[in-house]
Write a structure and sequence with these properties.
- With 88 residues, the protein is α+β, with helices and mostly antiparallel strands.
- The chain has one domain.
- It is built from two helices and five strands.
- A five-stranded antiparallel sheet has the order 1-2-3-4-5, with helices on one face.
- Strand 3 and strand 4 form a beta hairpin.
């Protein structure tokens, strides 16, 4: 399974998870949100019930999809999204 830098940090830092959960809620409420701190540049968008996170840190671009887990209302499924090089 491919991992993004965002996923690695999300799964290893409880304080970071709290910040991300707040941004997910903001994106669900407003359609989008952003987190720009400590050199990070994350853009969140609500797309058909999923949250798409684009990590634009250090001039790179990685995309992660956060989807509700259909088996557990208190859980999410987090997956890396392959973006063709010409679209980055």
């Amino acid at each position: 399974m491919k991992k993004t830098r965002f996923m690695s940090k999300l799964f290893s830092d409880a304080d970071y998870q709290e910040k991300i959960n707040a941004k997910i809620d903001e994106a669900k409420a407003n359609g989008s949100a952003s987190l720009e701190e400590d050199g990070e540049n994350l853009q969140f968008a609500d797309v058909e019930g999923d949250i798409i996170v684009e990590d634009k840190t250090d001039g790179m671009s990685e995309v992660t999809r956060i989807s509700p887990n259909p088996d557990d209302d208190n859980d999410f499924i987090v997956t890396a999204v392959d973006v063709p090089a010409e679209l980055q």
